[in-house]
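Hi F.,

I've been meaning to write this up properly since the lab meeting, where we talked about keeping a consistent format for the predictions we share between groups. The idea is simple: the sequence comes first, exactly as it goes in, then the structure tokens exactly as they come out, then a line or two of notes. No screenshots and no reformatting. I'm using this chain as the first example so we have something concrete to point to.
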Amino acid sequence: MRLGPAVRIRRVDDDGVSLLVGEDRPVDVCFDGRRVWTFWSRRDSDPVGADWIRGPWPLRHAPWPRPLRGHLHGSSQVSVRDSVTGRVLHDRRLTLGDGEGTIAIENRRGVELGIDKSGRLVPTFATRTERDIDALLDATDAVLAALRETGVEPFIAYGTLLGAVREGRVLGHDSDADLGYVSRFTTPVEVALESYRIQRHLAERGYAIARYSGASFKISVTEKDVTRGLDVFGGFFDGGRLHLMGEINTPFEPSWITPLGTARLDGRPMPVPARPERLLEAMYGPGWRVPDPAFKFTTPAHTIRAFDDWFRGTQPGIRYWDRRSHHTKRKPTRTEPSALGRRASVIARDIGAAEVLDVGAGRGRDSLWLARQGLAVTAYDYVPRGLDLVAAQAEAEALPLEVRHLNLTDRRSLFAEGARLAHRPGKRVILARHVVDATSAHGRESLARLCSMALREGGQLLAEFHPAVVERGEPDPTREEWMLGRPDVDVFVALLRDAGARTVRVVNRRGPARPVVRVVGVW
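Output, unedited:
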């Protein structure tokens, strides 16, 4: 099983794919003939054995993607093929996991799933019927028309543009639709203001919108059994360069964008840039004409920094939390609360609080438990879709639990929610478990400001977080991916006092890997 001097498959088992690699190639893994995952033989695998024994055909191992592992129980005809040539490298009936039944990689509604370019297990277009594709294209047409009403000239972009130009149809391994526009403005501030105006216009027409950054957002469109995203990316010209969220910062001619042309996508005419091949090369490189289901953007560091400074500064860590919420949204929520959640229940009853605000509620473990104790609860989160399961449970049980979006690093979000709370009477308890260490310094300031608005009639803040354990600039081996910055306890206490806290108490506790601080502020 070999493809010239490229790849040989040694084994496919519960751990993943073991292979001998002569050169880096995109490889498809199929279950019962359906492509589920594509990876690059070298880029996405790990070496096995010491350097000196690897030789010209080193043994490497590609582990199963984490979201896929829970589905790999049972039997299936597993084939591995070269993604470009289609040559089969491995084809055997295998039994994986507990070995019972047939491997079914699908959601609870029976919709087949695949790993997309972001490593998410999602319904891809390859599994959808012509009717499903038509429904998405109808939605795309409607959104394009709504965008034109705002004065911009939208076009299909990224994977949607690639599918139209290269193949004339949606890419089978893709899972969403991408739209772009180039603003008439030339500064990031004006572009961001325009993007928010566009969002308001679309919201007035009933679209559900989640913002990625100051110049990009997602519109959720529900088919009969699947909710898909239409991503809208804003861009602008400045100094002979095109800046287009979220990956492009390159020399570009305006005449390559406008006047817009047309390409057919599954038989439907769609607006495209005047020179679509120029934009595709900027997006995917000179090899964009060769299919690569495992393509990963390698955005230059200077582009990431520029977009972070201009547009993404209000969403620190959003990629981690969005990915995490997607992978865990279907998992049952733990029924037992945290120790801090239990303490919030006691304090709420002692002071006669009107409600508990669970800031950074995550998957809603504490929120659901508190609501089941008869307390009115508002569960806030940066990525509220992680609370969908809890919201459904609360509705089924008629519990007093409301889920709301809150971004502590976005002043629009903070002041809108703070004003809403300030006009509602009653004492409150604010629960903030691992929020202080999961947000930026600006986010910590905003948490204190939220307390000043929400607790003006009295109440308490219960915050728990990991404090800084090493000096700035030194490595921190126990730091986890979601931790942002190095929260200083004294600085946070000062923020609470400045926000009106009458007393602030600090309790040092021991965590399994690093210390935990509990801060109680009383208003």
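Notes:
The longest strand covers residues 227-238.
The chain has a mean pLDDT of 87.

If this format works for you, I'll send the rest the same way.

G.
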